[in-house]
């Protein structure tokens, strides 16, 4: 089951962060058809957000045809999203995780690591490398 996390400094609406995290989990194969999303009550308890925020995110996902609520049971993934090569995703996730651990071991904090990542990301895509 997915565990949602919020980034208060991202400038992205809370419900959109939830939607984006489901999209990302589907693209990485972490969620598949038949998997259950946490109940709105579980998300509210963990993230201390308004229940309507969770329900709005789930309604958006339902409109996209990605989830379907089952009364009394919860909300379930109904379809996946196109994925690139799963082996490549796994390989790069592993190397990114190693890089993050190295950065932390070097004494860098989350804000510094994120700044480095975002700068490299923007530079890579601005150059048309990707």
Strand order of the largest sheet: 1-3-2
Gyration radius (Cα, Å) is: 17 Å
Low-confidence stretches: none
* Content of β-strand: 5-15%
Q: What's the structural domain tally? A: 2
CATH class category of the largest domain: Mainly Alpha
Intertermini distance: 31 Å
Largest sheet: 3 strands, antiparallel
What proportion of the residues is helical, as a percent range? Answer: 55-70%
- Which structural class do the helices and strands define? mainly alpha
Instruction: Kindly state the number of beta strands.
Output: 3
Order of helices and strands: HEHHEEHH
Task: Give an overview in words.
The protein has five helices and three strands; from the N terminus they run H-E-H-H-E-E-H-H. It is mainly alpha-helical. It has two domains: 14-77, Arc Repressor Mutant, subunit A (Orthogonal Bundle), CATH 1.10.10.10; 86-126. Strands 1-3-2 form a three-stranded antiparallel beta sheet. The protein is globular, with a radius of gyration of 17 Å. The two termini are 31 Å apart. The model has no long low-confidence stretch (mean pLDDT 93).
List the helices and strands and how they pair.
Blueprint: H1 14-27, E1 36-37, H2 40-47, H3 51-63, E2 67-70, E3 74-77, H4 86-105, H5 110-126
Antiparallel strand pairs: 1-3, 2-3
Helix pairs in contact: 1-3
């Amino acid at each position: 089951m997915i565990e949602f996390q919020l980034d208060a400094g991202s400038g992205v609406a809370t419900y959109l962060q939830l939607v984006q995290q489901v999209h990302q989990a589907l693209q990485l194969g972490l969620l598949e058809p038949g998997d259950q999303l946490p109940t709105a009550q579980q998300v509210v308890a963990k993230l201390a957000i308004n229940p309507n925020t969770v329900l709005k995110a789930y309604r958006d996902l339902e409109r996209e045809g990605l989830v379907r609520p089952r009364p009394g049971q919860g909300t379930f993934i109904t379809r996946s999203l196109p994925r690139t090569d799963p082996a490549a995703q796994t390989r790069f996730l592993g190397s990114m995780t190693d890089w993050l651990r190295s950065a932390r071991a070097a004494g860098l904090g989350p804000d510094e690591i994120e700044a480095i990542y975002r700068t490299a990301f923007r530079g890579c895509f601005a150059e048309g490398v990707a």
